[in-house]
Amino acid sequence: MNTGRSPVTVNGWGLRCPDGQNMVMINNLAWSTPLPHRLEPAADGKWHILTEDVRTQCEARGIRYQDLVAYVNLADGRTVGAGKRGINWKEAEPAGRGHGYLSRPETCANPAR
User: Fold this and answer.
1) Residue 54 and residue 90: Cα distance in Å, rounded?
2) Model confidence over 59-68: pLDDT tens digits?
3) What are the residues facing 48 on neighbouring strands?
């Protein structure tokens, strides 16, 4: 949710690893909020990733998904991180490919009040 008083535009998002490297999301899943996305004050957006993709990346990097921090890139050049580590996890669906979404997206949009 955009907790600020001014609208912001989200151009992209990703997950930051504990070592400072980023997993940048370039393909938005169909049920994610389209990008770029303008957030009016008190509005929100949700961006999703397949949990299997997160697991694979975390295993390859030797990190835990609980330690990832979601972030959004704003049109004004700022990058704003989530206020909480980890992703919300929805376990496997019939094909074994569940999805996750930004942890606490309400803290990601506009830190200015």
Assistant:
1) 12
2) 999 999 899 9
3) 101
